[in-house]
Design brief:
7-stranded mixed β-sheet, Aminopeptidase, alpha+beta, globular, 149 residues, 7 strands
Length: 149
């Protein structure tokens, strides 16, 4: 098992992981299609953002990506796993790697917009809820989380 920098040719597998992982939470195919643009990881996205994939043997099973916001803040933009790997410690493995990387870069604050079903997962790492916003689904709110490093 290793985490390595993604390259632009990983865009299709990362998009597949994103869509399958999102569907894991019970969203309909129709809803996933409506979110298609937001769930698509383009070659350009990988080339312009920090994107790291989790590889088991030769199979990419998950990834995370982040963007720098200002001098001392960073936003965890994506963290997804193939559904068959959810709940088995691989998400923790990705978050631990991300947090270690952020501490080594001397960032002061991490922000993220969490999938509502994943909020408790992030709270276990010390993230705090600082707000929320309504999504395209009526009465579905996306938690805004932060962590001071």
């Amino acid at each position: 098992m290793k985490i390595e920098k993604a390259n632009s040719n990983d865009n299709e597998i990362l998009t597949e992981i994103t869509k399958r992982s999102k569907a894991y939470w019970g969203y309909s195919e129709e809803q996933i299609l409506q979110w298609n643009d937001n769930l698509t990881i383009s070659k350009d996205y990988i080339e312009t953002n920090f994107t790291f994939k989790l590889v088991s043997d030769t199979k990419v099973i998950g990834y995370y990506s982040y963007v720098i916001e200002g001098e001392k803040n960073v936003k965890l933009d994506n963290l997804f796993l193939l559904p068959e790997y959810i709940g088995k410690g691989f998400g923790k493995y990705l978050v631990d790697d991300f947090l270690k990387r952020m501490r080594n870069e001397n960032f002061e604050k991490i922000l993220l917009d969490s999938e509502p079903y994943a909020e408790a997962f992030y709270l276990k790492f010390g993230f705090k809820k600082i707000g929320e916003f309504e999504t395209s689904i009526k009465n579905r709110f996306m938690p805004i989380l932060e962590m001071n490093l």
